[in-house]
């Protein structure tokens, strides 16, 4: 059993009681909600005649269903309009702070909370969305929950949970040029498998991790869940603190000094005990692309799609399903695979640094005429910043469509969808069957820089050829 | 599809029903219920859309479309079932279709806790036993009698010792799987915790 890790410290601090069944009752410091997984929870509160226990500890925004082309109200899609209206009504009724479209602070919930300074080290953070693990980049313990648990957090600010085990993933050295956090996390998921993290929190550590910017760290923690780990985190350091400083909801004045001292004390102790430790060499990671239907099915840009014989018996079943669905042949190169759609955005890679790196690749170049490319900033703040830097113009000049903030084609709950069996090069997090809105659509996950390169060439390309 | 849906309430100890086998590892919640069906403010109509895209692709040959599985209530799956999105709509859709319990090699964490929270026990068995059940189901019907107290699954031909997290087993037997009221019992402890946490005081802006 793990001891003295950040996870242990934060868990123990938030433990309210041991429940009769043997699980723990844990206090949730920050609860984030959005329009898709909250309406039924508010409905259940009403049925049970319960109130929101601490309305100040819940913050709402709208992201999954928002259109990214025309955001004027009412939305063209009646169901989407009904969902946003329900959220507006629930937030008003229960006095919950809501960052609506046009507030200047709306966006993907996992982009918004960090940029407002709501996400801080040492907190427990829950949200009805599996990518809540993103917030672990700040040294918080953050995880996705379902709607019944959203109800429980609203009603009690606590959850019944079993404590997770802790696996440290130690990344030595540093990433090479043209290789990004997305490549590293895809590499980790490939090495460990998509279910290795079940029952675990992942602590990402080592020189390669601490070299990363806060936004890159968010990309890593964001995809913990794709490796099966509901929660992933990184010990906070100077980068964490300076990112938070002066943000809207950051501690101010004398509270800042108190906060700093406390945050420092949260780090995993030097001699802390882990349930498991994995070590890998980050300098060996190359630009990585998924070829299959799980985020674990990835290869580096110059590799061939694995042969069945090269895979473990457990992976064979899904590989066979993936070859068929993706229309790929075992042994085929992933490089030069033609793409139809290029998508830059999502809670994984929709932040300002992602747009900057993609814009750098795109500057002065044109998107292939066979490709529909669009960029969706992760939040209104990201969009504003991008415009101030002129990034939107670089995207538009290259042939990218520049859209309004939202989850968009990561999960295609709005009108941004693949058509038929289109192939998309996507900076998002999931390549599941049908994920991007067409039941036969095909998704290749990669870094935003790699998506930009694919957009220019109209096929999967090695971004290192663009940046040297 | 069953006609009337009534959600489970109170103590859950015995589940008897016909098994429906669904073969495949890493079956994600997008496949169980595609995102377009999440555009709803209640769960009522999800049952009919469970596995919608997989079912369309298989044109009537998906296990959830086979006549013989019409009244099945125990779903038998392979490893990492329910991975991906945290959408509770996935177990809600399964439940509304008629699933009352799931037996698998392993389950994704969030899917598992969602199932527990709505009253669907998820049991695990070794790969070999799952394959034994799935092979059996290929040729004939399997009715299992599950006893949560003794963790046994029995039938005419096959018998298994099921596994489930002890905390989940206890919660089902005591009826406390619907956690809200249990959590609310500790009202004072919750208040105390709120007052103790260092960062609550930091956030002068938030309140």
Automatic annotation (TrEMBL), chain A:
GO biological process, any: L-leucine biosynthetic process
Cofactor, how bound (note): Binds 1 [4Fe-4S] cluster per subunit.
Ranges for region Disordered: 424-443
Pathway: Amino-acid biosynthesis; L-leucine biosynthesis; L-leucine from 3-methyl-2-oxobutanoate: step 2/4
Catalytic activity annotation: (2R,3S)-3-isopropylmalate = (2S)-2-isopropylmalate
Residue stretches of biased makeup (Polar residues): 424-441
Keyword tags: 4Fe-4S, Amino-acid biosynthesis, Branched-chain amino acid biosynthesis, Iron, Iron-sulfur, Leucine biosynthesis, Lyase, Metal-binding
Keyword Lyase: yes
Domain called Aconitase/3-isopropylmalate dehydratase large subunit alpha/beta/alpha: residue spans: 8-458
Keyword Flavoprotein in record: no
Binding locations of [4Fe-4S] cluster: 347, 407, 410
GO-annotated molecular function: 3-isopropylmalate dehydratase activity; 4 iron, 4 sulfur cluster binding; metal ion binding
Enzyme class: lyase
Pfam families: Aconitase
EC number: 4.2.1.33
Matching PROSITE patterns: ACONITASE_1, ACONITASE_2
Superkingdom of origin organism: Bacteria
Quaternary structure, from the entry: Heterodimer of LeuC and LeuD.
Role summary: Catalyzes the isomerization between 2-isopropylmalate and 3-isopropylmalate, via the formation of 2-isopropylmaleate.
Protein's name according to its UniProt entry: 3-isopropylmalate dehydratase large subunit
Organism (species): Prochlorococcus marinus str. MIT 9401
Name of the gene: leuC
TrEMBL record, chain B:
Functional pathway: Amino-acid biosynthesis; L-leucine biosynthesis; L-leucine from 3-methyl-2-oxobutanoate: step 2/4
Catalytic activity: (2R,3S)-3-isopropylmalate = (2S)-2-isopropylmalate
SUPFAM superfamilies to which the protein is assigned, alphabetical: LeuD/IlvD-like (SSF52016)
CDD domains: IPMI_Swivel (cd01577)
GO biological process, one term: L-leucine biosynthetic process
Enzyme Commission no: 4.2.1.33
Chain ranges passing through the membrane: none
Signal peptide: none
One cellular-component annotation, GO: 3-isopropylmalate dehydratase complex
Highest taxon, organism lineage: Bacteria
Its biological purpose: Catalyzes the isomerization between 2-isopropylmalate and 3-isopropylmalate, via the formation of 2-isopropylmaleate.
Complex and partners: Heterodimer of LeuC and LeuD.
Family to which the UniProt record says this protein belongs: Belongs to the LeuD family. LeuD type 1 subfamily.
Official protein name in the record: 3-isopropylmalate dehydratase small subunit
UniProt organism field: Prochlorococcus marinus str. MIT 9401
Organism phylogeny: Bacteria, Bacillati, Cyanobacteriota, Cyanophyceae, Synechococcales
């Amino acid at each position: 059993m793990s001891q003295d890790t950040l996870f242990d410290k934060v868990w123990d601090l938030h433990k309210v009681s041991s429940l009769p069944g043997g699980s723990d009752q844990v206090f949730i410091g920050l609860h984030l909600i959005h329009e898709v997984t909250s309406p039924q929870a508010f409905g259940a509160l009403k049925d049970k005649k319960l109130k929101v226990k601490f309305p100040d500890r819940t913050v709402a925004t709208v992201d999954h269903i928002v259109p990214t082309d025309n955001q004027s109200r009412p939305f063209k899609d009646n169901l989407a309009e009904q969902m946003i209206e329900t959220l507006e009504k629930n937030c008003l009724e229960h006095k919950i702070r809501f960052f609506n479209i046009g507030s200047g602070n709306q966006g993907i919930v996992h982009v918004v909370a960090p940029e407002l300074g709501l996400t801080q080290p040492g907190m427990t953070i829950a949200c009805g969305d599996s990518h809540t693990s993103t917030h672990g980049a700040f040294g918080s313990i953050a995880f996705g929950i379902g709607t019944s648990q959203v109800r429980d957090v609203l009603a009690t600010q606590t959850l019944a949970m079993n404590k997770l085990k802790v696996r440290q993933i130690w990344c030595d050295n540093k990433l090479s040029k043209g290789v990004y956090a997305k490549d590293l996390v895809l590499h980790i998921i490939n090495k460990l498998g998509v279910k290795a993290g079940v029952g675990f929190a992942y602590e990402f550590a080592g020189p390669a991790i601490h070299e990363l910017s806060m936004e890159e760290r968010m990309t890593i923690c964001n995809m913990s869940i794709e490796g099966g780990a509901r929660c992933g985190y990184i010990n906070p350091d100077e980068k964490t603190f300076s990112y938070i400083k002066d943000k809207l909801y950051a501690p101010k004045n004398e509270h800042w000094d108190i906060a700093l001292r406390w945050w420092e004390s949260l780090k995993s102790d030097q001699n802390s005990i882990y349930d498991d430790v994995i070590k890998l060499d980050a300098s060996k990671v190359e630009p990585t692309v998924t070829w299959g239907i799980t985020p674990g099915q990835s290869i580096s840009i110059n590799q061939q799609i694995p042969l069945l014989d090269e895979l473990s018996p457990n992976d064979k079943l899904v590989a066979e399903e993936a070859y068929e669905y993706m229309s790929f042949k075992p042994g085929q190169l992933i490089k030069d695979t033609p793409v139809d759609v290029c998508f830059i955005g999502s809670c994984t890679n929709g932040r300002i640094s992602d747009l900057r790196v993609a814009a750098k690749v795109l500057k002065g170049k044109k998107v292939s005429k066979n490709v529909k490319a669009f960029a969706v900033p992760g939040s209104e703040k990201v969009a504003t910043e991008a415009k101030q830097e002129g990034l939107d113009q670089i995207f538009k000049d290259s042939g990218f469509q520049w859209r309004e903030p939202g989850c968009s084609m990561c999960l295609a709950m709005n009108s941004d969808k693949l058509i038929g069996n289109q192939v998309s090069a996507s900076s998002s997090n999931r390549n599941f069957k049908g994920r991007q809105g067409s039941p036969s659509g095909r998704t290749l996950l990669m870094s935003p820089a790699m998506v930009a390169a694919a957009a220019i060439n109209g096929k999967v390309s090695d971004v290192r050829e663009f940046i040297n | 599809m069953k006609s009337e849906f009534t959600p489970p309430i109170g103590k859950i100890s015995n589940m008897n029903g016909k098994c429906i086998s669904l073969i495949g590892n890493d079956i994600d919640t997008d496949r169980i219920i595609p995102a377009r069906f999440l555009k709803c403010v209640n769960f009522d109509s999800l049952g009919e859309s469970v596995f919608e895209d997989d079912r369309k692709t298989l044109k009537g040959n998906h296990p959830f479309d086979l006549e013989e599985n019409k009244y099945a209530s125990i779903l038998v799956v392979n490893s990492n079932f329910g991975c991906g999105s945290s959408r509770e709509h996935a177990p809600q859709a399964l439940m509304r279709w008629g699933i009352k319990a799931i037996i698998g090699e392993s389950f994704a964490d969030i899917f598992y806790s969602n199932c527990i929270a709505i009253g669907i026990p998820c049991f695990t068995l070794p790969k070999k036993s799952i394959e034994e059940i799935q092979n059996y189901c290929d040729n004939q019907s399997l009715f299992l009698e599950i006893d949560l107290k003794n963790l046994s699954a029995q039938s005419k031909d096959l018998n298994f010792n099921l596994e489930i997290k002890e905390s989940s087993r206890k919660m089902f037997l005591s009826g406390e799987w619907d956690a809200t009221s249990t959590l609310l019992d500790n009202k004072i402890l919750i208040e105390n915790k709120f007052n103790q946490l260092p960062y609550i005081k930091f956030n002068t802006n938030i309140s």
